[in-house]
Write a structure and sequence with these properties.
Low-confidence stretches: 1-27
Helix content: 40-55%
Order of helices and strands: HHEHHEHEHEHEHEEHEEEHEH
Structural class: alpha/beta
Strand content: 15-25%
Distance between the termini: 46 Å
Number of helices: 11
Strand order of the largest sheet: 1-11-8-6-5-4-3-2
Number of strands: 11
Shape: globular
Mean pLDDT: 91
Radius of gyration: 20 Å
């Protein structure tokens, strides 16, 4: 049953009418809304393993391990490290996850989160089931490591399908996964990552169909909107952010420009954001020289 069908059921079926007749409260499902925060804006710095992807995959030498990436984050004086799922060794076990938890703690780091590849726009069938199972598996992994949040994707509209149908299926996939995530104490953060999240209007359409939950929010990616005013688009999703990734590049349409870090941090402050700001470096310059420079810029801006 889809999310919209559930809402219609709760409001219009004979069961609901009977409850009203008896003077009992009629259950309703609230949609996800902006994150409720207290206190002043507060930001901490982390770095996404994706930033060193060419070293972690061995495309550039010397090849880096995830353990070495964690040590790099400590050397950079960061508060956290984001361990992208793509760079975990093959056939790792729970003992490996526990070792990452121990290593980061002893180095004074949080595992600020992890990130997976999934597609919730897929129609019912084996591929969709596989994507949902993959999400549950990484919820389990995140819980063992102590990672509080997983960045998830929405997905792409299947050929011949409509945006609306894909949005409905995406929301249904998030709602199904949220039930499991809540049991494990792991948040799911939907990223603005192309596909049916290319524009903020699409993001908000999905969010309206997600059940209200303290375990759901947005992964605010500062480089993924490509429009006439990407900063204005980012401001629209900032109130929903529970995790933030900032890139050094931003696009006005297809034209690349250097990200105005101060402007992005100002957007986050205006939204009252409290949490991690994760540098996800994708620029042409080697991360060994580019990342430390941008980390220092961000450190000065957030006051950490």
């Amino acid at each position: 049953m889809t999310h919209s069908t559930r809402r219609s059921f709760l409001h219009s079926t004979a069961s609901a009418l009977a409850l009203g007749t008896l003077g009992l409260a009629i259950p309703t499902i609230q949609a996800a809304g902006p994150v409720k925060r207290n206190g002043k804006p507060h930001m901490k710095l982390s770095l996404a393993a994706y930033s060193y992807r060419d070293y972690l995959t061995g495309k550039l030498q010397p090849k880096m391990t995830l353990d070495q990436f964690i040590e790099l984050c400590a050397d950079l004086g960061l508060d956290g490290t984001e361990l992208t799922s793509y760079y975990f060794p093959e056939n790792f076990d729970q003992a490996y996850l526990v070792s990452l938890k121990q290593k980061t703690f002893r180095l004074g780091l949080d595992i600020s989160g992890t990130a997976i590849a999934n597609d919730f726009c897929l129609p019912p069938g084996e591929a969709r089931d596989k994507s949902l199972a993959h999400t549950r598996l990484w919820i389990d992994h995140a819980a063992v490591m102590g990672a509080p949040v997983i960045r998830i994707f929405a997905g792409n509209v299947p050929q011949g399908d409509s945006d609306q149908a894909a949005i409905e299926r995406c929301a249904a996939g998030i709602n199904e996964s949220l039930k499991y995530a809540a049991q494990k104490g792991v948040c799911l953060a939907l990223e603005n990552h192309g596909g049916i999240t290319t524009r903020p209007e699409q993001m908000l359409e999905i969010i309206k169909r997600v059940d209200e939950s303290p375990w759901f929010g947005v992964n605010f990616d500062g480089g993924n909107f490509r429009s006439a005013d990407p900063y204005a688009d980012l401001a629209r999703i900032a109130p929903y952010a529970i995790n933030v990734q900032i890139k050094a590049d931003i696009f006005r349409g297809d034209k690349r420009e250097d990200t105005d870090f101060a402007k992005v941090v100002g957007i986050l402050r205006e939204a009252g954001y409290r949490g991690y700001v994760v540098l996800e470096y994708e620029s042409a310059e080697d991360p060994k020289t580019g990342v430390p420079r941008h980390i220092e810029t961000l450190r000065k801006l957030i006051g950490g």
